[in-house]
Design a protein that fits this description.
three-stranded antiparallel β-sheet, globular, signal, Protein Transport Mog1p, Chain A, Lipoprotein, 2 helices, eight-stranded antiparallel β-sheet, mainly beta
Length: 209
């Protein structure tokens, strides 16, 4: 959801809003809130995950523009890595805030979207908001998420800063709402470094009763 330009964009990559190099693993700074290794509610509080190590929660002005169902975390700054949590986005809502007058638009989520349509929406977000000049789908396959049939979407993208980034999204449409985790990071070193954390949280994520 890491944005040089305000994914992560859905990825410190596309979510990367600007190079933030002063943040380290488990840092607690002004625009960040330390997330400790314990059960933690994300987004609007309807989903809970357990991070395997300390992360940094961005204080609501990352790639997805303070949408209340969306929350962004990073280890080393959104320019380098990030995870975006989407916790039950309702049908008819957008992942990002955008003006109707803007020429390029990210489509709104619909409850009847298929996995390819959701991933196309994510790609649009990376291109429109994240500034991706090239976007490649690496794989799209079925995957269980929080006990429901869902999908796994692997991709990579080249942004205007000439840095390749790689990402993975795992999600499902549950009771008409979109639940999603999106990981995005610089392709060299950073992606491999935090992918195990993302997988651990994707596997332990659950909807709170």
């Amino acid at each position: 959801m890491s944005m040089r330009k305000p994914l992560w964009a859905l990825t410190a990559a596309a979510f990367l809003l600007g190079g933030c190099t002063s943040v380290g693993e488990g840092t607690d700074l002004g625009v960040y809130q330390l997330v400790r290794t314990k059960p933690t509610r994300v987004g609007n509080g309807s989903v809970e995950v357990i991070p395997p190590r300390a992360w940094n929660k961005q204080r609501r002005f990352f790639f997805f523009d303070s949408i209340r169902w969306v929350e962004d975390w990073t280890l080393n700054g959104p320019y380098l890595d990030g995870i975006t949590f989407v916790s039950g986005l309702p049908s008819g809502e957008y992942l990002i805030r955008q003006r109707k007058t803007e020429e390029r638009q990210v489509p709104k989520f619909r409850s009847d979207m298929t996995a390819p349509e959701v991933t196309a929406m994510l790609e649009s977000a990376f291109r429109v908001r994240g500034g991706a000049v090239e976007f490649r789908t690496l794989a799209l396959q079925p995957r269980q998420f929080m006990g429901y049939p869902g999908f796994q979407f692997d991709f990579e993208h080249l942004d205007g800063d000439e840095l390749w980034r790689k990402g993975r999204a795992v999600g499902a449409v549950i009771d008409g709402r979109l639940y999603l985790m999106l990981y995005d990071a610089a392709r060299s070193h950073y992606y491999a470094n935090a992918l195990p954390d993302f997988e651990a949280m994707a596997n332990n994520a659950h909807i709170r009763a």
